[in-house]
Write the structure tokens for this entry.
Amino acid sequence: MKFEEKLSKIEEIANLLQNKDTDLEKSVQLYEEGMKLAKELDEELGKFERRIEIATRDLEGGIETEEYSN
Amino acid sequence: MAQYLPKMTVSELTASLKTVLEESFFGLTVEGEISGFRPAPTGHWYFSLKDESAVINAVVWKSMIPSMSIRPKDGMKVIVTGNINLYAARGSYQITCTSMRLSGEGDILAALEEKKRRYSALGYFDESTKKPIPKHPSKVAVVTSPTGAALQDILQVTGRRNSSMNILIMPCIVQGEEAAATIAHRIEQVSTYALADVMIVGRGGGSVEDLLPFSDDLVIEAIHNSQVPVISAVGHEIDWAISDFVADLRAPTPSAAAELVCQSQDDTLTKLTNIVSVMQEAVFAKVNDARLRYQSTGIESANRILETKISDVLRIKDNCLSSINSSVSSVLADYRRRNEVARGKLEALSPEAVLSRGFAIVTSADGKTIRDSANAEIGQNVNIRLQKGKLSAKVTEKI
């Protein structure tokens, strides 16, 4: 699932959890699914170490880059 | 014999002239050619404005220099705004400039407006053609000058916000004749090779002429055809270029563009934190509802159900939340407090605690708790759970 899809899914789960017709059994299942998604989303949000690159040369079918330093 | 006014001193005459001149000639807009431009050691700019048959001295005070959009050069045709000042000690007058722009600017702006209308008619600015800016970009390409202030602003904003976003700098020339082609080429590369999730195309402030490459057909077409969403960020708030209209999003400045791409990430984190809170609230509300409902119908069933469910909830929370970063820590702290409370309640309600007081749990062969004698049949086999051990029994009578 893509990030955006997970985000939509977790919103849907939160809505279902708030629905008073959802019983406890189902709620715990939903909660588990939701919390797993929350964990994944959170990890995705923080997983990238910021990298700054600069394009140095045009290549056939792409570009060459190198680490940027001020 | 001619009539003369009463005698006055040079100072008195000059003071009168000063009053008349300065009160009559202010808020002027004057067009002319710069000549004799000489920046003084004091920091002020002195020059003359002339045309075919007249010349007037002009000055830009040091304090006003930062707000001039161009640096004068002899021979440059400019339009200045300002006021006339008379300098009594030298008997001279001059125009004190408050702004200065190239005199061709009006023509340039008119041509830009015309071009803008043309592209608008072609549907290049239609909202329906705008691509959404990704809410969670992991890589942003920045098409700008590698030595310009815009790049530094973008790096500073994204760095300050502790963004984990990767940045790809696509260096290009941002003013002059070659600029448009290099900007367009960079945009095309980002799009063709899918080098980023979103790109910022822009530069810092400058004169209308300086910003022209961002209104060039090559750049307009490149932005229009880009598969990667484009944020246009040209100059200051008041500046514009046609790239602003054809882009998927216009940012007033390069810094603002950087804020925009980080903002969505911050928003996502806030949203996620809120959703986690909502889910926790909701699941605890369910547990509480169940507790209230079951407590009235039989303590042993409440125990069994609540024990399983609460421990499920706590286990899920422990498994999933322990690694969520500090942004969710307030939620987590709150959760822990509730966890303690829940555990306390759970212990009071645990089957062991109840069974130890001499109660027993009666279940049918399929494991369902029998809470009501109406749910048991004469002759049915039931299981009885005691604090220690279990019994199997047969219902012989309903009392």
